[in-house]
Amino acid sequence: MRAENRTHFSSSRSDVARAALTSHGNHVRLTVRLTPNGGRDAIDGFETAADGEEHLKVRVRGVPEKGKANEALIAALAKALGLAKNKVSLVSGDTQRKKILRIEADPEAIAKRLADIAGTTE
User: Which of the two ends of the chain, N or C, has the fewest CB atoms closer than 10 A to its terminal CB?
Assistant: First the structure.
């Protein structure tokens, strides 16, 4: 039954991406579900959770202790987006899997880059 709660990334993929990413003038906020100890650093695409909230799935090799996984998340996203690490910061979710990140960059450029990375179409 869990498969019913997932988005299958058909034509609505870009809608999911937009819901996980919100524009706030000169920056964006991105909802992320982080998997620490993920074996590799990777962005696995956008997904709708069972509760209906959309997020970007990211896995990192970092362990969930003393902020190491959060640091790895910021580094992985900054690298994928072509930004300096200091342009990506954690707003909430320090000790939870669900995180909200603030990305200091042009919202349109970030939305396009995330869509390219996650394999969604605008």
Answer: N
